[in-house]
Amino acid sequence: MSPSTAEPRQRSLWGWGYADRFPPAAARRQVGAMVSAATGIGPLEPQEPAPEASIALAPPRVAVPAELTDFTSVSRAARLSHTHGRGYRDLVRGFRGDYAPAPDLVLTPRTEDEVAAALAWASRAGVAVIPWGGGTSVTGGVEARVGPGYQAVATLDLAALCEVATPCAVSGTVRIGAGATGPVIEHALGAHGMTLRHFPQSFEFSTLGGWVATRAGGHFATVYTHIDDLVAAVRMVTPAGTFATWPLPGSGAGPSPDRMVLGSEGILGVITEATVRVRQRPDRRASASVRFESFEDGVQAARAIARSGLFPSNCRLLDRTEATLNRVPAGGRHVLLLGFEGVGRALGPPMDEALALARAAGGTCDEGPRFRDDDAAARARGDGGAARESAAWRAAFLDAPYLQTILVSLGVLVDTFETACSWQAFPALDAALHARVGEALRRVAGGGVLTRRFTHVYPDGPAPYYTFIAKAPPGGELDAWQAVKDAASETLGEHGATITHHHAVGRTHRPWYDRQRPELFARALASAKRELDPAWVLNPGVLIDRPE
Ligand SMILES: Cc1cc2nc3c(=O)[nH]c(=O)nc-3n(C[C@H](O)[C@H](O)[C@H](O)COP(=O)(O)OP(=O)(O)OC[C@H]3O[C@@H](n4cnc5c(N)ncnc54)[C@H](O)[C@@H]3O)c2cc1C
Fold this sequence. Notes:
alpha+beta; Uridine Diphospho-n-acetylenolpyruvylglucosamine Reductase, domain 3; Alpha-Beta Plaits; four-stranded mixed β-sheet; four-stranded antiparallel β-sheet; binds flavin-adenine dinucleotide
């Protein structure tokens, strides 16, 4: 079948990714056995998601306005598929057939003029508008939970604004539509030998607009991994007009207008396009894996490397349970995955220096580093050892969301939380999280496991990322999740660690974000919102509240 006649691959209504990646019960039972063996929780029995036909959906509360009919849908399929993000709460509600927060309308504008028309209508009609990129928010950012005072809720999906222009080979920048997903962007840039080099774990389905709106973090451990550093200019349509910045390599002209859009999470306007910095695809890679008997030694190694100025592309410390669950061979020890990459530069010297620092902290690297001139050559050679470990880790990284979906169907309480703190603060924070989250898991689920890794490392501190796993109390999954989430979030705040390093604030993190940000900043943000969105229709409940 030619690509033009092929049926589009069906997305799961409730779970991560493609529907055909959700295995039958027998295969899920095997996954359950593997997880039970690694964590001690279980037994885990597969359950089936609520049949789509059984899902109750209230009729839309507004009629489709005449001027928006060309790009507006009230179909059951459109409304259900735009109800939930992809956090644990979303998966559980979707699995159980709870679609109560479904939007009334789904708008899919094809031009900036259509975005402007939608916002004008919504402002007049008192309809809340939720910008939607890939819908991969894990913090309730795309959920139609908008509070009182709105006639209805419309979700505005940017999927049609997904053009990738030809990159400027001189400056290394390119204009990309907000709705372009990771694979669309990399495919288009690949034709020019370029890459944006931004790979969040949600890469397959999340979008440039969503990344900018949430200040997403990619999977590289140091430098140029946040979308913040890759954005040269943005265009954002607001109810008050279009907000467009100049593409500049840098500017000291007052507070940065780009920075006002970055992290605005859909409350100030609809990002329609960004000009981003792209680069040549790396042709050299080096990788190594260093094992540690003690996690603390691994922390010292990661710290030394983060402060060395070597800036590895990968510097991921996984504790032993995390390594087992991610199928990283670590011989029951903690493991630091190191990587360097570049275009035409020798990677031996920085790798040797990094390994010396890791060994000085007590690590062992039995197999030594692996070097690849390029991916094709490495594949042809059937490279092994550390390169294979690193590849196994990357594959598991992008597959992990599918695993979470399977675990939800096995009745597992499984979610992650992430933060950043100083090196000085980390040991006490980590100990407190194990104590408090451990206590919460015992209280609500009779016990469970908390694993950790560093996703990013900075000279002044790590970005630790935790996963909690327990057997969910049947029917009480969401209360149990909330109790564990509260324990973790309170502990982060008490230790001066951020409520989120890259998962955004959304609606879920509001109580802790409100305590973290200065009160005067909240008032200034509210004033900016009032100017750009006078009817306060854009994503109410996210970042700040509507004034009385
Ligand atoms: C399995 C999984 C793995 C993840 N891994 C990572 C990771 O590695 N790094 C990371 O940073 N995040 C990660 N996330 C979180 C999420 O993918 C990011 O927040 C991502 O940036 C969201 O992009 P999206 O296009 O899906 O946006 P959505 O989820 O659709 O929206 C997110 C927020 O941005 C707003 N928004 C979206 N598009 C626009 C727009 N064009 N204009 C204005 N506002 C807009 C929405 O209203 C919402 O508030 C992960 C999520 C999942 C489920």
